[in-house]
Specification:
Layout lengths: L1 E5 L2 E3 L5 E8 L7 E7 L6 E6 L6 E3 L7 E6 L4 E6 L8 E8 L4 H4 L1 H5 L9 E2 L3 E5 L2
Parallel strand pairs: 2-11
Antiparallel strand pairs: 1-3, 3-8, 4-5, 4-9, 5-6, 7-8, 9-10, 9-11
Length: 133
C-alpha cells in the first residue's frame, strides 16, 4: 500500500502547479482523500478533501477559488490543481486517505480537519511546493 505525490516545484507568484497522488496496492475509489500541507514552523493544514462515499468536497478558505481537487479512478490518482499561487502557499504538500466508514470519511470538512488524535489510514511522503519570484 503506497501513496506517491509528485508535481511539486518552484513557481512564481500567480503561477500554477498540478500535484498528483498515485495510489498502489489499493483502489482509491473506496477511500476518502485529502490534500494537506505544512509550512515551516506551522501546523499541518487541510487544504482540500473529497469525502467517501458521496464525493463531497471541501476547500480551506485560503485556497477557495484557486485550488481544485479531482480524482481519476481509472488512473487511481487524485490531483490538486493550484492556480494563482501565492508565497503563502509554500509548504510540503501531502495526500492522505481514509478507508474507515466514519463520520470523518463521510464529511470532507471533518476529513480536512480531523479531531485531535484521529489518524488517517495512509499518508504519502510529501512534495515540496515553493512560490517565490
Amino acid at each position: 500500500v503506497q501513496l506517491v505525490e509528485s508535481g511539486g516545484g518552484l513557481v512564481q507568484p500567480g503561477g500554477s502547479l498540478t500535484l498528483s497522488c498515485a495510489a498502489s496496492g489499493f483502489r482509491l475509489d473506496y477511500y476518502a482523500i485529502g490534500w494537506f500541507r505544512q509550512a515551516p514552523g506551522k501546523e499541518r493544514e487541510g487544504v482540500s478533501c473529497i469525502s467517501s462515499p458521496y464525493g463531497s468536497t471541501f476547500y480551506a478558505d485560503s485556497v477557495k477559488g484557486r485550488f481544485t481537487i479531482a480524482r481519476d479512478n481509472a488512473k487511481n490518482t487524485v490531483y490538486l490543481q493550484m492556480n494563482n499561487m501565492q508565497p503563502e502557499d509554500t509548504a510540503i504538500y501531502y495526500c492522505a486517505v481514509e478507508h474507515k466508514a466514519t463520520d470523518v470519511a463521510r464529511d470532507p470538512n471533518k476529513l480536512c480537519r480531523p479531531p485531535k488524535g484521529y489518524e488517517l489510514d495512509y499518508w504519502g511522503q510529501g512534495t515540496q511546493v515553493t512560490v517565490s519570484s
